[in-house]
């Protein structure tokens, strides 16, 4: 096994107020790199077992580079070390470079010249070792195990064996929760939505890591803004297609916050997601892909909905009804209204002349003189008390425009319902 230890010396200050919550979020983010993650709260550290992950990320070097780049992007100061045991990796984070050791032999050689004070032993034990004339870790490791046990107890010998990866060094494994909940508490009140973008960027990056760890995506997540003596403000962010990219999330959140009026200053911020779906990852090819314009359109629709509101952007969808005013409806701009949707069986014939512009209400007119085509009889709606009996015609106005008119056979009146450009 090969353990990466990430020491976070300034986590208490950089994580705003809640250090434990920050470690929980980081553990979820780190799960995308390893299936075995553990952390310690007393001295903020995170452990990842990387031995089983190196082949998945093109080797040890690229994997470490990705992890450290992600930590920099999150804005956390950190020290990383790699060793065959978690205890040794934790010690090497406090040692000078080099901090990467791949096997036991290299580990013993790397520990030998390090000062005795780096050992995580009680102060009285370190003082007794120094009083015996020892000043380097290598000198302690050369002592007989029986002598160390007799003088300092079995705990000291067990620690040294774990340090050298000679015995098992188990760590409590952290597991991904079924739903995602992240909370960021501020040390002071935040009064503008612009000031919320920095903590939001960090939360969304950690959320992206969680989604990658679970190999899933989301269609919707929620942001909750906590206020002092005010109800929580909730903002729901929806996507046209399932996604897990933090940059896309941040774009939508920024558009939504642009028009958001906070009722009071914000004391804490929460991000929640409860429903997940399979990731919609499109593989590129050499000659381009027809799916790229579709993805760009989906991103545009998401931005418009985030800026204007969920119910301000619609798409048209055909309905199985012969009545022209009921042959379509407004739907959310998602996959249910994409181009290429088959024509329902009850819809008008594809070869029938239909204008793109229908009047909101049919306009009563005099009987037209220039009928070009027709009649097309439509009788429908008897089952919902909206029975229509109409004969439709293509007509020409005095100005030469094409009109779509019908004669109501029940009232024997003529109406204009549609126009051609």
Describe the protein in words.
- The chain is an alpha+beta fold and 421 residues long.
- 30% of the residues lie in helices and 27% in strands.
- It has helices spanning 11-14, 19-30, 60-74, 86-92, 104-111, 123-131, 137-141, 145-152, 154-163, 197-214, 246-258, 291-308; strands at residues 3-7, 37-40, 45-49, 79-83, 180-190, 218-227, 230-243, 266-273, 315-318, 328-331, 357-365, 371-380, 388-396, 402-408, 413-419.
- The strands form 4 sheets. A 5-stranded antiparallel beta sheet has the order 11-15-14-13-12, with no helix packed on it. A 4-stranded antiparallel beta sheet has the order 2-3-1-4, sandwiched between helices. Strands 5-8-6-7 form a 4-stranded antiparallel beta sheet.
- A hairpin with a 2-residue loop joins strand 6 (218-227) and strand 7.
- Helix 10 (197-214) packs antiparallel against helix 11.
- The longest helix has 18 residues, at 197-214.
- Mean pLDDT is 85; it is low at 335-350.
Report a brief summary of the structure.
The protein has 421 residues and is of the alpha+beta class.
What is the total tally of β strands? 15
In whole angstroms, the N-to-C terminal distance is 72 Å
Give me the secondary-structure category.
alpha+beta
Strand order of the largest sheet: 11-15-14-13-12
Helicity range of the residues? 25-40%
Q: Helical segment tally? A: 12
- Fraction in beta strands: 25-35%
Low-confidence stretches: 335-350
- Overall mean pLDDT score? 85
Succession of helices and strands? EHHEEHEHHHHHHEHEEHEHEEEEEEE
Characterize the overall form: elongated
**What's the assembly state of these chains?**
single chain
Biggest pleated sheet:
5 strands, antiparallel
Cα-atom Rg, whole angstroms?
A: 34 Å
């Amino acid at each position: 096994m090969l353990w990466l230890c990430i020491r976070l010396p300034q986590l208490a200050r950089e994580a705003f107020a809640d250090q434990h919550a920050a470690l929980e979020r980081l553990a979820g983010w780190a799960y995308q790199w390893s299936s075995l993650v553990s952390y310690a709260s007393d001295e903020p550290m995170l452990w990842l077992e990387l031995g089983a992950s190196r082949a998945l990320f093109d080797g040890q070097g690229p994997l470490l580079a990705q992890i450290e780049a992600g930590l920099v992007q999150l804005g956390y100061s950190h020290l990383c070390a790699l060793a065959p045991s978690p205890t040794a990796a934790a010690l090497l984070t406090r040692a000078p470079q080099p901090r990467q050791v791949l096997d036991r032999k290299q580990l013993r050689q790397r520990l030998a010249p390090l000062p005795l004070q780096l050992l995580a032993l009680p102060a009285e034990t370190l003082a007794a070792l120094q009083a015996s004339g020892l000043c380097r870790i290598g000198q302690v490791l050369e002592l007989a195990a029986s002598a160390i046990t007799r003088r300092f107890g079995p705990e000291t010998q067990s620690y040294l064996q774990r340090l050298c990866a000679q015995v098992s060094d188990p760590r409590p494994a952290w597991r991904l929760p079924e739903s995602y909940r992240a909370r960021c508490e501020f040390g002071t009140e935040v009064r503008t939505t612009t000031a919320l973008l920095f903590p939001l960027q960090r939360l969304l990056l950690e959320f992206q890591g969680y989604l990658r760890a679970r190999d899933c995506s989301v269609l919707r997540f929620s942001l909750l803004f906590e206020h002092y003596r005010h109800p929580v403000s909730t903002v729901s962010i929806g996507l046209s297609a399932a996604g897990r990219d933090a940059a896309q999330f941040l774009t939508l959140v920024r558009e939504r916050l642009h028009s958001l009026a906070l009722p009071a200053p914000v004391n804490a911020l929460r991000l929640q997601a409860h429903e997940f779906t399979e990731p919609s990852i499109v593989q590129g090819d050499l000659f381009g892909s027809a799916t790229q314009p579709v993805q760009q359109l989906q991103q545009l629709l998401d931005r418009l909905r985030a800026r204007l509101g969920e119910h301000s952007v619609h798409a048209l969808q055909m309905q199985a009804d012969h009545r022209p005013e009921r042959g379509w409806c407004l739907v959310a701009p998602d996959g249910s209204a994409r181009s290429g949707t088959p024509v329902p069986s009850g819809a008008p014939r594809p070869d029938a002349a239909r204008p793109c512009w229908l009047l909101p209400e049919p306009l009563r007119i005099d009987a037209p003189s220039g009928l070009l085509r027709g009649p097309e009889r439509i009788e429908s709606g008897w089952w919902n008390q909206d029975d229509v009996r109409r004969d439709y015609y293509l007509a020409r106005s005095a100005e030469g425009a094409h009109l779509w008119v019908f004669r109501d056979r029940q009232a024997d009146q003529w109406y204009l319902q549609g126009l051609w450009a």
